[in-house]
Amino acid sequence: QVQLVESGGGVVQPGRSLRLSCAASGFRFSDYAMNWVRQAPGKGLEWVAVISYDASNEYYADSVKGRFSISRDNSKNTLYLQVNSLRTEDTAVYFCARGECSTSCPPDYWGQGTLVTVSS
Amino acid sequence: QSALTQPRSVSGSPGQSVTISCTGSSSDVGAYTYVSWYQHHPGKAPKLMLYDVDKRPSGIPDRFSGSRSGNTASLTISGLQAEDEADYYCCSYSIIYSILFGGGTKLTVL
Q1: Sign of CA dihedral B61, B62, B67, B72
Q2: Beta strand ranges found along A1-120 (DSSP E)
Q3: Residue of chain B minimizing CA distance to A35
Q4: What are the chain B neighbours of A61 within 8 Å (beta carbons)?
Q5: Which pLDDT belongs to residue A102?
Q6: What is the pLDDT along chain A (120 residues), one digit of tens a residue?
Q7: Quick check: helix, strand or coil at residue B76?
Q8: Under 8 Å between Cβ of B26 and B4
Q9: Is A61 within 8 Å of B97 when comparing Cβ atoms?
Q10: Partners of A115 in the beta sheet?
């Protein structure tokens, strides 16, 4: 069965960086687009970024463009999110989610999420 | 980056039907088949309930149905059950923003 397991969250000071990882199993990772979606405390789901199946295309939400970078290693079945210049408003649970297609499309399967807290 | 518009809350009694709307534009909901709905219990992973506007993944009961009219998609839950109480989100491909989520709707089963 499809499994997505995020890691790398934690408490970090404003302006610092973090790298989130998502280990995928149970499907052919290299066939699917992958997304990062976040949920701030008390707020709704916010799409963050998507990367196509072959990493040839990346798209970002305006709120993170220029600060976050999505990448993938198809040989390791792993998705990454490099988060730089963190702000307090980036505090959220970050979910890794498989796209239902190979390029840019809504997610179907989701991980349990990893919490990032930005605080001084 | 505008979110798709959903009602903040809906409610219904067990056995009744409720409908949650999701309004976007001709650049997203109204133009593409990539419209999905998720059920989210706090602290858990969101769960796909419908994809491609009206398709149900394996294991999702036919009490959950989807439709679209113009720029508005809808999720209807019939025969409400206590375990349906959760937050529901719509999501669409957008030619402008790539992926958009709705603001979420809290369903209360009275």
Answers
A1: negative
A2: 3-7, 10-12, 18-25, 34-39, 45-51, 58-60, 68-73, 78-83, 92-99, 107-110, 114-118
A3: B99
A4: 1, 97
A5: 82
A6: 999 999 999 999 999 999 999 999 999 999 999 999 999 999 999 999 999 999 999 999 999 999 999 999 999 999 999 999 999 999 999 999 999 888 888 999 999 999 999 999
A7: strand
A8: no
A9: yes
A10: A93
Residue showing tokens 């976050």:
A68
Contact residues, chain A, for B24 at CB < 8 Å: none
| Residue of B37, B63, B58, B59 whose CA lies nearest to B48 | B37
Task: Tokens for B9, please give them.
Answer: 């809350």
Q: Name the H helices within A10-73.
A: none
Residues 6+ apart with CB under 8 A from A72: A29, A34, A51, A55, A78, A79, A80
Residue B43 has pLDDT above 80, yes or no: yes
